[in-house]
């Protein structure tokens, strides 16, 4: 498979997760989901001041946090564990005919550049036919947003295929506002052969750090 980002093969034998990998990899459904919420208040208020999309901003932060968490860079390809050097995003988009499409959003180094490019890509897809638009490689994260309601849990559709590459899956719900505090429902699904709950904790810590940094930006 042609991919955008360089990757490194991690030998299974002697790997720190060798036992966990051998145990979980044969499972028919090896993903586990964690449902939580995060406080995105600094990011939300920054976007409102700057006229940026809050939706695109939390996708950008998710990508940054995943790249800072090594287990979210891991994939399973042809029975081998590989670690990518970077990630892009593949997100669901609701088109004008009320059907969804899976749309590739390339990484940009700045939030502003990412929002501008992603906005244009999504606008171009709105009236297009087809389910998939743009690059859909293993070095993506899979994202979906349900902005119409909050949720306490979210289970993704999946194919019962033990050869799944193990791409992490994120789902976001409706923003909840309590005075100046804005929270975002979040579901994270990861392949248990590649990550445990601890690694989701690390990702959430990175997300919180990136979000908090916007509190100090004018």
TrEMBL record:
Keywords: Transferase. It comes from the Bacteria. SMART domains: CAT. SUPFAM superfamilies: CoA-dependent acyltransferases. One of its GO terms (molecular function) is chloramphenicol O-acetyltransferase activity. The keyword rRNA-binding does not apply. The keyword Transferase applies. Pfam families: CAT (PF00302). Gene3D superfamilies: Chloramphenicol acetyltransferase-like domain. PANTHER family: SLR0299 PROTEIN. This is Chloramphenicol acetyltransferase.
């Amino acid at each position: 498979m042609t991919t955008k980002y360089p990757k490194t093969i991690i030998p299974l034998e002697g790997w720190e997760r060798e036992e966990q990998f051998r145990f979980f990899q044969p499972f028919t459904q090896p993903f586990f989901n964690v449902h939580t919420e995060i406080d995105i208040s600094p990011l939300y208020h920054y976007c409102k001041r700057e006229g940026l999309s809050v939706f695109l901003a939390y996708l950008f932060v998710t990508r940054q946090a995943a790249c800072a968490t090594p287990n979210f860079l891991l994939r399973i390809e042809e029975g081998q564990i590989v670690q990518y050097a970077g990630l892009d995003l593949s997100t669901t988009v609701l088109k004008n005919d009320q059907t969804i499409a899976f749309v590739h959003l390339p990484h940009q180094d700045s939030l502003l550049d990412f929002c501008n490019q992603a906005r244009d890509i999504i606008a171009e897809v709105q009236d297009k036919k087809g389910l998939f638009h743009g690059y859909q490689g293993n070095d993506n994260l899979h994202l979906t947003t349900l902005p119409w309601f909050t949720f306490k849990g979210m289970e993704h559709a999946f194919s019962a295929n033990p050869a799944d590459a193990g791409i992490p899956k994120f789902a976001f719900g409706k923003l909840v506002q309590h005075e100046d505090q804005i929270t975002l429902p979040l579901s994270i699904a990861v392949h248990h052969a590649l990550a445990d709950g601890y690694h989701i904790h690390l990702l959430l810590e990175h997300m919180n750090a990136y979000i908090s940094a916007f509190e100090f930006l004018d």
